[in-house]
Amino acid sequence: QSWSRGMSYCLHSESHLDTGPIYVRENGKLHVVNRGAGGVQNVTPKARPFSLFSRTFSVELCMNREDDRARRQRTDHFIFTYTKEGNLRYSAKSLFSLVLGYISDNVDHIDSLIGFPEQIAEKLFSAAEARQKFTEPVTGLRALQKFTEAYGSLVLCSLCLRNRYLVISEKLEEIKSFRELTCLDLSCCKLGDEHELLEHLTKEALSSVKRLLLKDNSLSDAGLRRLTAPVRVLKKGLENLLVLDLSCNPKITDVGIGYLLSFKKLNCLDISGTGLKDVDAVIKRLQMQIGLVHSKVPLKEFDHSNCKTEGWAEQTVLQWEQAVMEAMKPQDNLRSRVAALRFYGKTHRIEEVVKCTLVEPETKASGNLQFYKENVENCHLPLKKEVAGSHELKNNKKRALAEQERERTSKQKHLCLTVEDWDLLNTY
């Protein structure tokens, strides 16, 4: 009784606490306290699932760590330097730098840059390029198009994709977004007649191209017919073309050369290594109809070492190439597979990148077929002085130059130019 009165007092004094059922063992038996009746029942308790928390209890998982982007944004507002004593010192960045970094992180959400100052746009492009925003698959193309639509040739005026067929296949849409290019080098890419990029060359966006290098691209007469169709029919397309390289394309014949006669502004042409049947007839035809003269020496206009990528997006193209090269590296699981093949005596197939040779067998057979237009600067100069003259001319160099100077001065007496003036003009 005393135990029951004490237990009842305890329950009534702490009635505000929800302690749940209370079990007491007495004389070898387990008793449960019934709070409602205020007594003890000799009832064997039923097994109930033990719950640590009530039904209304909820748990929210919170991670006490930040991602890299949030951490970079937290510290990106300051510039950390060290004093002479070795103490760490930081200063806040300018508002322009903070805004520039924020916009470059979200450059793909820009609606338009038309009318935006070029100086600020160049800094914005460089900031986005440093963050490699233009290498992203979808957002990179959208961001690049905003710049090319607004600034054209400033983004890229010259593009060299020589022997970079993988870059063309991976970034074709990005390459097609470039506008107002003046020089385009697609040598040794094996594009063929049906490639989408060759079709894009006839569009209005690339009507500004003046130098086009298509050496070793498996072109035929059908490809030249499509390439020149807008110029021949609509007087559009590559109408401003000045330099054209079609060398090392053996499928181009005399019929295909006929399509090139529509390029009236053409100053330099290279058709070495093509499948011409009547070379003499082609030489006369080019000279009579568009005024191109056969050159006895290689011309510097077709020296591919002078062609390079120029513009804001120069580093962007390098980033594309580096990404392609990283994707081509063999993985660890592939290396183990190759080792297994070698263990069982199987030969591993190695795919080598097709490289463009400077001198093709067809070129040696047909000889040098480079043409230039007379009285036009920078299209009749030889590639190298050693190639331009033979050993005999080297020994008599002074005498040959003196004879040329006398002929020029005799023909151009009305200009009153001295020998020094002619030498100065020949240096350009």
Automatic annotation (TrEMBL):
SUPFAM superfamilies per the UniProt record, alphabetical: RNI-like
InterPro entries, per the entry: Leu-rich_rpt, LRR_dom_sf, LRRC42
Record key words, sorted: Leucine-rich repeat, Repeat
Domain of life of the native organism: Eukaryota
Pfam families, A to Z: LRR_6
Gene3D superfamilies with a match to the protein in the record: Ribonuclease Inhibitor (3.80.10.10)
PANTHER family for the chain: LEUCINE-RICH REPEAT-CONTAINING PROTEIN 42 (PTHR31994:SF3)
Protein family according to the UniProt entry: Belongs to the LRRC42 family.
Protein's name according to its UniProt entry: Leucine-rich repeat-containing protein 42
Organism field: Prunella himalayana
